[in-house]
Amino acid sequence: MKKFVAILLFFCIYFSLIPNFCFGEEEVVLPIIMYHTILNSRQGTYIVSERQLSADLEALRDEGYTSVFPSEIIEYVYGNGSLPKKPILITFDDGYYNNLYYGLPILQKQGFKANINIIGKITDDETENGENPNPNYSYLSWEEVKILKDSGNFEIGHHSYDMHKYEPRYGIGQLWNESDEDYKKSLETDTEKLLLKMQEKAHIMTNVFAYPFGKYNELSKTILTSMNFKMLLTCNERVNIIKKNDPPCLLNLGRFNRRGDYSTNEFIAKLKV
Ligand SMILES: [Zn+2]
Q1: Rounded distance, CA 93 to CA 96, Å?
Q2: Residues with Cβ within 5 Å of ion ligand 1?
Q3: How far is the CA of 12 from the centre of ligand 1 (A)?
Q4: What structural domains does the chain harbor?
Q5: How much is the pTM?
Q6: How confident is the chain (273 residues) per 10-residue block, as mean pLDDT?
């Protein structure tokens, strides 16, 4: 009888606890927020005010979220790192100067980490024009990108060198009459150009790519992963499930665009869907 109870106990523990321990805890829910510009003068689909950004971060902390860098997420998935209980990834797209002017002090004050995805050609142009930057319309120069990187609050990601536009192609989309070979060459050339600039101008190495306008296809995913990109960010609004030892789970991650016409509470509620 004792033997029977012992065997029963063993199976109960095996089938109830062990699978949860082995598999359940390896999966992490990861919401990602996508910000763009920070302006106090107007509202819009891609604009938040300083006050809204501050309120968002405070609310996220109150909800128990801890911000993480893309590198920490990658380390976790590739088997070496760990993540906090409720991780969240904060991203900023396009490389606006106001992300440094307004955003960095807010992130520093509240102890938040973020990713910023820059466009190479715009960063080059801003660096060359050399005018005094204005938070209302300027983009980051290479020197300013480096300030963000050195702040310890930002990791820099790739948002194409010169494919963040609607013509001749829509973002990194393939042209209808373009062969796969030609498309591969165009995307690789553009992508490589920003990778080299990042290294040369600000000693940055990244394996994070944010699709311009969220446009992507199967071939672009293959091309970018073959260039060693490990995290690909879309504009599809959904929460992500991250798994250890499952690198494909980082390809085509969903992000929630933070529109200016939502209240902080309305927006944070969306992250739980
Ligand atoms: Zn963009």
Answers
A1: 8
A2: 93-94
A3: 52
A4: 27-270 (3.20.20.370)
A5: 0.90
A6: 54 47 71 98 94 98 98 96 96 98 98 98 96 95 98 98 97 97 98 98 98 98 98 98 97 97 95 80
